[in-house]
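User: I'm curious what two different proteins look like when written out as structure tokens. Can you demonstrate?

Assistant: Sure. I'll show them one after the other, since each token string lines up with its own sequence. Here's the first protein:
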Amino acid sequence: MNSFNYLSIIIKDELRAAREEFRESKVMIIAFLCVLIALIIYLDPFPNRHIYFATDDRSSDWHSFAEESASILKEKGLDVSVIDTDGAIDNVIRLNDSKDKVNTAFTFGAALNQNQIDGIYSLGSISYEPIWIFYKTNKIHQLKDLKDLTRYTVGLGPSKSGSYMIAKKILMNFGIDVTTNSHFVSGRFLDVHNRFLNGDLDAFIFVSTYQDPIVQGLLRAPNVALYSFSNAISYQKKHSYLQAVNLPAGSIDLLNQIPPKEVSLVATTTSLVVRRDMHPDLQLALIMATKDIIRSSTDLLFAKRNEFPAYVDSLIPISPVAQRFYDYGPPHAARYLPYWIAGFIDRAWLLLLALVTVFYPLSKLNIHLRKFRFVMKERPHYEALLEMDKLLLKRKLSDEEKGVLLNKLDRINQDAIEEGAAVGEEKPYFDLLSSISMLRKKIESN
């Protein structure tokens, strides 16, 4: 017999044993397959590849950041659509609308109510956005305290904007309710900005980055001053979503010394948020793209190098994916494999470790199914032989009893021959036949 023929016999015996095992244990095997399928479904290795990114108006920093993210994510095989919106609150309203396709967005935690927060996760903050309070020096000689604003006409952003909601919360510290106080008016940012420049408004409060054209223009505008928070640290201690930051003298324009002196500000942070049911691999891809953009950013006016992304605004619950990222860093597999494979391995590694832990020791036992099946069939025959042998030791048998036992031996012998022997089990097979022959002699001589 050559090696090929021997191998083919082994394969046939293994397949025959597997077929018999399945026939006898099909309920257990089907249950195992169901559990395996359920695990695959739970781990969900095949995400939808489309990200719909809600930002702000087309001229905003949020829109620009989303466009940069899109270019990185498209290189990873994802489709990204950047969507213009009305800002922080509108973004979350759309995220919470199951009929809307938006699945990620920028927002401010402080601008949201609890119902809006309950449907989203934070992937972390990406930047500081100060609360800017500009006032006309020809109308307000010096703004010592925010309580003084009640004596003047103050412009705010749209009533459904993040800027409006944050300004409302800040002023409530001083017992000022902007919804009932007639000194505070809201409107579209450009309209309020123009009214402020024209002298119709004495002050203007809004939230934005320092690169915002409105901020840049007002910092250079004549008869306009920027309010400095003398107790900025107190705001930070009182509100988890606020951070004290400094605008150094000359940091906007060294040549013209803008601002002329250091200004203390309080800032909130822009949070990158997603629907809670967004696929974890897409969340991981978003965080990694954000990290890449910020790493190469030259915008270090308020943030330190590599400070963002980070989980700063605790008003929005952190995504479990983001939590793992900030605790342990990106999956090592992400350096070499596509994002969805790396994410799947990151989620499944405990299961894979458990499987290895269980099956590696079993593999050392060198269990062959054909041998296992042969032993299972052989064992009942030996049990029957042992019972007969015990009976022979107890007493002398009658001719009729001997005939019964010999008939049983014939049936056992016939069954053993019909079942045959698996490859490698020939010796145990003939040992059984020899045992039958020896017992027959003992019965006959009893």
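Here's a second, unrelated protein for contrast:
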Amino acid sequence: MERTLERDSAVQKLPDEVDATFPKQRSVHTARSRRRAVLAGAVGNIVEWYDWTIYALFAVYFSEQIFPNSNPTASLLAALAVFAVGFVARPVGSVLLGRICDRVGRRAALSTTVTIMAITSLGIALVPTAASIGIWAAVILLALRIIQGLSLGGETSAVGAFLAESAPANRRGIFTSVYATTIMIGTLLGAAVGLLLTTVMTDAELSAFGWRIPFLIGGVLGIVGFFIRRGTRETLDRSVGHDPKPVRTVLAKHRASAAVTFVIVGAASLSFFGLISGFPALAKASGHSAQVAFEANTLALIGLVVLIPIFGWCSDRIGRRRLLILGFAGLALTCVPALMLLASGQVLAGQLIIVIPEAAVQAVLIGSLLERFPSRLRGSGFGLCFAFAVAVFGGTGPMISTWLVGNGSLVWFGVYVAVTCAVAAVVAVKMRETAFESLPE
């Protein structure tokens, strides 16, 4: 394990030298295929994360419709608990859909995940309220969220592998940063819909029926994503073969990479779901208007969309590891001040202060970790490590923050995130740099 985590002391190849492994394949066809690969990974991922995000954003409005309770905070906590359960399903989905990714192909996995997300989004939009069918409303919502969790568990590794394998060797950083960029675009789209609806509708209208509109939009976008993804080329090299027991192989032969993935992804997902994706609910629970919260969140997401590709481009030149260290250290230093600003009424400043370090982390997150796993383990093996970390840290983040806010302990959530990010920064210091190495077969 020490050998795996030690710094790479060897002389690293320059990016142009690495790209020599892609000799004279710069044909129009190849360039066009790569553009289509980026589009396919982008559009489906936008749909996936739009659907995932609007649940967190609109839970405050439909929680009392599905989970009626005399205490609004209790209803919201119940809705966020279902949000967390969806994350718990992600590791299972990473194994089930990861097998499709590693055996059948990346394209088949991508088409499957976006189809599932479209169907479940439409299902949530049409779910009856507790006033109509009682407890079955909560049961149906829980089932749909579990299925969505299965879908997103397979999406992450499939998109990451697809983008990395489609990229020239010296541009894997910017190619894989498309994954994080489209997460932000999907989240931004959800926030923009939230801003629009909170502007034109009252809270009563949103609670009564308005919350269904974003889920209907997600279903339609999913159908579009399916047709785009279905027409892409396959990147899986089937000559490598597949691992019949990928989970056992990862735990037996890639324990160090699995441990690094758990810590790095856990901290990154906690900071994102707790302080970016969950920020509007956090601000509203702190007594600020929904419109102000959505405006701040929208500006932050625009900043992330701009910065992530820039950091992805930089990682192809200076490496992924440095950006992880700087990003996590920055988050460790800014999380508590961000929530102190929010508590004092400075909503916009509280949101924007964490944008730059968050962008640095998210830009290289999936690329820096996926480069540590061989082709036959990128679907099930890597996907399981990634999904498990997100479930443990990211899935519980909004629920923990809401509970702390309800008990007047907002800043302590910032301490929790800061400590987690500080640990991740230490792990990043000990990581091996993989940016200038060939993808392992």
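A detail about the second structure: The radius of gyration is 21 Å.
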